[in-house]
Amino acid sequence: MTATIPESLGALRALVEPSIRGAIDRLDSHCRLVSGYHLGYWQVDGTPTDGGGKGMRAAFTLLGARAAGARPDRAVPAAAAVELVHNYSLLHDDVMDRDAERRHRPSAWAAYGEADAILAGDALLGLAFELLAEAAEPTATWALRTLSVTVRRLVAGQTADLRFERRDDVTLDECLEMVRGKTAALFACSCSIGAMLCDAPAETTLRLARYGEHLGVAFQLVDDLLGIWGTPEVTGKPVLHDLQSRKKSIPVVYALGAGVAAADRLRELYLAPGELTGEQLAEAAALVEAAGGRSWTEHEAGRQLDLALAQLDEIDELAGGDDAAPAPLPADVRAELIDLAHFVTGRDR
Asked: How far apart (Å, rounded) are the C-alpha atoms in residues 213 and 113?
């Protein structure tokens, strides 16, 4: 990971920020207040702040446009749309997961109430489609359909994740399929929709989508590792948060299915009523590691990252030939896609 990545993210987000802020200004005053608070634009009472997310998904969308040989500003409507969809999902997820903190401060539902947070999420979703529909590109209809399918996949993934909480027989394959919907689908969309909006060759768009899907899986695997072994300074959540909430994360599900003594004891702890003590949480983390959950997840995250980067090689290998063949990736775009991939799967997010 290069040291310039945060600066690169900031520069790309600066292209999208005015569009997102302008969209938020279309909302009624209270929904605007809740949405802007969630996005980090101001405090609970509306006092402006210097906050805001990294804008990773928007950055990938703009890079997708550049991969197609287009100016990044042509993809701003799509970049803003994927950021709004992402934040719609976060607003709703925090309510469903009862997460009272996000980005080291009270989540929107904790600050304003569940109903206001849900409605703010609904508003952001509507704004996403509104912005993309306004794009002055002949391919906007295809981009809209892609975003719609992505939201459907995202909802299916979140539904599966919630249902897993009520089951003790979740398989690793089921978990990975859930991740492909809940997390990887939006990554795939983010990485390809900018190229699509700019009328890139189908082979370029397809491989950027595959790059995003593999990267999204790797991202979630790392996130699951951080949910057990990360620090509050990095995750913004209490230590061992995912274990306390009995989350069926990838390391846990792998460990539960390992068929070893550590798996049996871990299952006992996961089925125990009430909150686990600090000692029990530490034991659970050690059991996940002893059963191989940590090492398998780390290895699979690395494998998915390699698969993502291989898609960039395929674009270059297909370059040339007939008019429908993709052009090779510009060297600077390839470098940024590689560096961003390493950044978003790093342990310091």
From this structure: 33
Q: Which tokens sit at 120?
A: 């703010």
- What is the token pair recorded at 128? 């996403």
pLDDT at 232: 79
Cα dihedral 109, 111, 112, 117, rounded to 10, equals -30
Could you give the number of structural domains in the chain?
1
As a whole-number percent, the residues of the chain with pLDDT over 90 amount to 83
Are 137 and 74 contacting, i.e. CB atoms less than 8 angstroms apart?
Answer: yes
In-domain check, residue 167: yes
Tell me, what CATH number does 269's domain have? 1.10.600.10
Q: CB-based burial of residue 285 (10 Å sphere; 0-12 exposed, 13-18 middle, 19+ buried)?
A: buried
Over the stretch 191-249, which tens digit does the pLDDT of each residue have? 999 999 999 999 999 999 999 999 999 999 999 999 999 887 776 677 788 899 899 99
Start-to-end C-alpha separation, the chain: 12
- Asked whether 109 and 116 are in contact (CB, 8 A), the reply is yes
Helix, strand or coil for residue 96? helix
Residue 58 within a domain: yes
Per the CB < 8 A criterion, the answer to whether 67 and 76 are in contact is: no
- CA 234 to CA 112: how far, in whole Å? 25
The pTM is what?
0.94
Q: Is residue 125 part of a domain?
A: yes
The rounded radius of gyration (Å) of the Cα atoms in the chain is 20
Q: What integer best gives the mean pLDDT of the chain? A: 93
Q: Is residue 349 part of a domain?
A: no
Read off the pLDDT of each residue in 102-126 and give the average, rounded to a whole number: 97
Please give the pLDDT value at position 348: 52
What backbone phi and psi angles, to 5 degrees, belong to 323?
A: -65, -25
DSSP letters spanning 120-163: HHHHHHHHHHHHHHT--STTHHHHHHHHHHHHHHHHHHHHHHHH
DSSP for 290-334, please give it: HTTHHHHHHHHHHHHHHHHHHHHHHHHHH-SSSTTSPPPPPHHHH
* Domain range enclosing 96: 5-344
**Residue 1 predicted with pLDDT over 50:** no
